[in-house]
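Hi support team,

I'm filing this because I wasn't sure whether my run with iron/sulfur cluster finished correctly. The job status page said complete, but I'd like someone to confirm that the output block is well-formed before I use it downstream. Pasting the exact inputs I used:
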Amino acid sequence: MDSAERDRRWVEEHLLQHGDMLLYGNLSYEMESVPAQQLWQEFRKVGESYLGRGIDRTRMIHSLVDELIDTLVARDRRFGYPPPFCHKGCCNCCHELVYCTSEEADGIHDFCASHGISIDYDKVQRQLGYVDCDRVKDHTGTTTWHNQQIEDQSCVFLHHTDKFCIIWPVRPLVCRVHLAEETDRYCKPFNGLENPHALGINYVELSYVLSVIFTIHRDSIKKTMGRLLLESKKRS
Ligand code: SF4
Ligand code: SF4
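And here is everything the job wrote out:
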């Protein structure tokens, strides 16, 4: 058996478990151009390090992604590309529903409890009224998010006045990898649909990570962060 076949079998046994590989970001567009051997190798590499870390795995994958982004941005700068526009207080992207894993939601819940941050569950509940797809456990499709009052459209963790993320150290993966170049003007989606002018920065290296994590946590991603937070609260 060659090494690509061994990697594929490992991925089938440990990540897929009779489901499909969920492909994110670049991978969903570039499947045809990525050699199969590379796909299985990368999936296995990320999967092994994540599954091998036990209860610490969410923190590990967050650090890995942060470091990866720093490396990729530094590499791009050496080639003359500007860094992402993203900066503290820049928050157009924080006005849409957010997805995470159930373990990330538990981590956020614990972080808030230990830092005296009270989560506005009434707002979470109101927001869920505008996310039909969450109710039927299917995260695809449009929402009626922008029918909400303007103040309800922002994430419950966005600081009211200073517009920074109050759970920054434990923010979900999707928030970490969401990067834009040049401007924040097109970063606000509308009812779940990306602005067609959005200038996102998509690194294939991050797509491998997201694909593996959301394949492992396929049940979590059928729900929004709000739904998962309510479940964490119930469990605590
Ligand atoms: S993704 Fe857009 S809105 Fe969000 S921090 Fe980056 S530039 Fe700002
Ligand atoms: S968790 Fe933080 S970074 Fe993510 S959407 Fe909410 S406020 Fe923005």
